[in-house]
Design a protein that fits this description.
mainly alpha; two-stranded antiparallel ribbon
Length: 149
């Protein structure tokens, strides 16, 4: 019990000392009659406050960037590999390029079927990417018309 009383007395002495220092600082501030000294103290407080605000903002920005890396980029890299897996081996996706001249009659006569095939391929590709990434991007052909070739 005596230890508790001694601790309370010690804390009371520290509180009185701290209060005395604060009052002496306050008395010093109010004793200043020169406006330039008050402006200097005000500017110091202003600059210190601005530094504190921007330091906290920088810390918040850093935390948000860390969350972006952890929760966005790492799962995205794991979910979307660059190659397709075919029978257990990694094989890059093939690229098929066909060219047709503007005067090719077989090309022009199959234009509606070609548009339908391209639309179906694009839709299948987007659906496969959506299934892999978990997003809900929708693709819909609204209309198409001839360009007057």
């Amino acid at each position: 019990m005596n230890e508790l009383i001694e601790t309370v007395v010690a804390l009371d002495a520290v509180a009185e000392e701290t209060t005395a220092k604060a009052l002496s600082n306050l008395e010093y501030y109010y004793s200043i009659t020169d406006l330039s000294e008050k402006l200097v103290i005000g500017a110091e407080v202003f600059v210190l406050g601005m530094i504190m605000v921007f330091a906290v903002l920088a810390i918040l920005w850093g935390v948000i960037e860390i969350f972006r890396v952890i929760f966005y980029e790492i799962p995205k890299k794991k979910a979307a590999p660059d190659t397709e897996t075919v029978s257990g081996a990694d094989v890059p996706a093939p690229t098929i390029v066909e060219t047709h001249s503007a005067g090719d009659d077989a090309y022009n006569s199959n234009e509606p079927e070609l548009i339908a095939a391209i639309t179906a391929a694009v839709t299948a590709y987007i659906d496969a990417e959506n299934a892999a990434s978990g997003s809900k991007t929708r693709f819909r052909v609204v209309s198409f018309r001839r360009t007057g070739r």
